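Hi L.,

You mentioned the student needs an example of a multi-chain input paired with its predicted structure. This one should do, with 999 residues in total across all chains.
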Amino acid sequence: MAEMMSHLAVGFGVAFTFQNILLCFTGCLVGTLIGVLPGVGPTATIAMLLPITFGLDPTGALIMLAGIYYGAQYGGSTTAILVNIPGEATAVVTTLDGHQMAKQGRAGIALGTAALGSFFAGTVATMVIAALGAPLTRLALLFGPAEYFSLMVMGLCFAVVLARGSILKAFCMIALGLLLSTVGTDLETGQERLTFGIASLSDGIDVAVLGMGVFGFAEVLRNLETPEARDVVRAKIGRLLPNWSDIKQSINPVLRGTGIGAILGILPGNGAVLGPFASYTVEKKIADDPSRFGKGAIEGVAGPESANNAGAQTAFIPLLTLGIPPNAVMALMVGAMTIHGIIPGPQVMTKNPELFWGMIASMWIGNLMLLVINLPLVGLWVKLLQVPYRLMFPAILIFCCIGIYSVNNQPADVAFTALFGLFGYALIKLGFEPAPMLLGFVLGKLMEEKLRQALIISRGSFYTFIDYQNRPISLGLLIVAAIVLAIALLPAISKKRDEVFTE
Amino acid sequence: MKKLALGLAAAATLAFAGAAQAQGYPTKPITMIVPFAAGGPTDIIARVVADHMSKTLGQQIVIENVAGAGGTTGITRAVTAAPDGYTIAMGHLGTFSAAPATYPGLKYDPINGMQTIGLAGGTPILIVARKNLEAPDLKAFVAAVKANPDKFNEAHAGLGSVSWTTCTLLKGILGTPKINAVAYRGTGPALNDLVSGQIDFMCDQIVSVSEQVKAGTIKAYAIASAQRSPALPDVPTTKEAGLPDYQIEAWNGIAGPKGMPKEAVDKLVDALDKALNDEGTKKRLLDLGAVLPTAEERTPAGFAALIKRDADKLTPALSAASKQ
Amino acid sequence: MSLNQIERAQGLRVRSTQDMWAGVFMIVFACVAVFMAWDLPMGSLRQIGAGMLPKSIATICGALGVILALSSLRYHGEALTPWSWRAVVHVLGGTVLFALAIRGFDLGPIHVPSLGLVIAGPLVVLFSGMAASDRSLKELVIFAAVMTFGCALLFKYGLGLPIPLAPWLLGI
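Structure written out for the whole complex:
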């Protein structure tokens, strides 16, 4: 403990210089901006800003780049809540209840809760990294392909719980999401699958394209259908910031979300993606009245947002302690570090203590700054909702178009987003919910990859997933999956039986 | 409204006049296509080099990431663009030497169908294995693999990636196509499973693995270059360790469409050379694990020869692998 | 005689057009996927082929669709509501226009050069904006100009994205 304190003292000494605070602020501001803009993600922005950091010392450069990364996580929830567009897969869950809250005139409260929850999660995660970074690294190494596959199966069972309506339709959506995830060139054999010979599908469907289409564009289409409904939304503004009873209601979800997100964030291969989904599932399951979820429950914003931010932060652990990047943004951070002469690996902590602890300390400062940047902005964002919808939706569309185009600089991606908008509109019309589909899509890619890896390594034996002697974690995860599925299915089945032939 | 229109017209006239007045290449920003997502090794090298080249040329080089199909989508766009010198691309071993054998329907010809500019940097390839693999050195490893190829698992970052290309070459040289290839999305997750001992070995660029080797979490059998690397002086070359045939480097280089004006080619070659001589740029490339290209490799002809040499080396092994 | 028995006596009929069509939608998707993946090898458990997952997941999709369609014959549910084709055409059309204009395209004999954001931006705002029932053309034109200008500043200069502005006019 004392050792950790002295380390943190070193870190704060580094982070609290004028230059580094300024860099941290700049990073957070840019991050918030790109998070709010749909499509433009942190990976592209960090890559573009990389040459600008050449003139800085490594610590300052990394502080700024890290600020962009977690600033984007904050900003992403704003778009999800205000206009129902998830900038990244992790913001999908926030759209479910956050956007409903906005429709009820509680946008400010949703934004405020998200910011406060994220700040708390960020603070805890920073401490986790400082105190437990090194021992927690082992967790990442315990997860081989088989464990991963079982984790994904568990994640898919969560998706069933995400559903608001019919369980059968939720299953349909998960299966459809899995099917869409198989589109593209096969990783192992290089064969094109379900691409219809279209070149821009050869790398699969981009999650931003799919998400923006089925959520954002479809939402615009639905809103244009009923001009009256959206004007009612505009009329209501309500309180700007959460009051004491809102906060009291969110405390426990925030605590649970932080824990869930922090653990999943450490896992390699983007385990952080599961955090918000898992948190939402837990909150919905233990709530006194689960039917409130999907209709603007504040727990459905507080928990997942905390999980998201905690996971985003603990994702630094494998990078800082093992030198292994768990996702694309972290891979870019490796590049940013090496360019400044620091090769991330097990020795960074001892070889460059100022950099290591300075960065950790700056994470907390960054989270504080994000709170300072974001809370005053809440009023501005809510005012934005008062822009007449006849102007609002063309603005959303031009932002989406430019954002999507800039992901790969491929115009075809923009056209595909329109196609998925039509697809999403059809889903709405048919009574399907897109959230389970997007989760199925995100997990599908990882799941197939891990299934094939596990089976190659086990030489084709499924026993590897339930081998309790060698792989107890995998077995445990599958058992949890089975329990979650049973809890979700049993009431639905008995309910359906009662409903037979009644109106 | 009228005022606005007038203003716009004035601005447009000024812009045209500006374009007409400027002498010679380049008069506007140059687009450098990086055929991979932002943030990858090629992207970072491109940004480092382009940053300095922009200063020499007096015009911004804008990096445009056009990812897809192992980098061939972006290269196709670059080499089929108008050959005016304003669209160039940063490709690598995979897109220029390996792609013709890996992608049968490739829409460009790296040997005859494009204008090479020069090599930006090479990265040595290492054969690394999990730390508790029995074989103590490369000779023992080769013997063990040859005896029981079926018992070994090799990791790579997907078809067409550098790790896949170089490992397929290794398997071709050893005559052991039966080794189980496990595909990952990126070298990060693959390395994770190598450290935790789920898989047996992989071939990858020195910069991704050097810190792990130093920390002893994985072991390196050999480096597939002519000389040992200063980053890992204890790791023998493949020649020293008894596998002299396995010589391969992952490199990145610049090319553009065929038929570019000579002035543009000369200025780009000169800008690249100046960038590679700049101390700051040099240091960043060396930190990234790159080996600086020789004077010969910095010329269009030298780079073209390198593409041809590696294509000849890789094609037999890669064609055999894709026929499987 | 309870309500249940009356319903039962009426036998099987479509009791939810929404679920019926949802089931058909799933079946169509599954069939297209199976057809597209027909030639891909299944492989073995030891070395899963490229076709195994697409085909098996598509089969599951199809089966779920059949169950959904059949259940619409027994259980009551929602009916289909009409589509707002006007919104679909304008919103998605506007987006497609942006995609076509931003870098230009070649379609047979038609060749359109890269028009850039200066053209593509107003195109998407104007064309899609026409979908609103309370639109005003004058307001929309001004808004399109302001948005395009703002986006050019923000994305091109603020964030430094390599997005073409007007290659035919400004050369960038």
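You could point out the following to them. The mean pLDDT of chain B is 86. Strands of chain B lie at 30-34, 61-65, 87-92, 114-130, 153-156, 180-183, 201-205, 218-223, 249-257.

Best wishes,
N.
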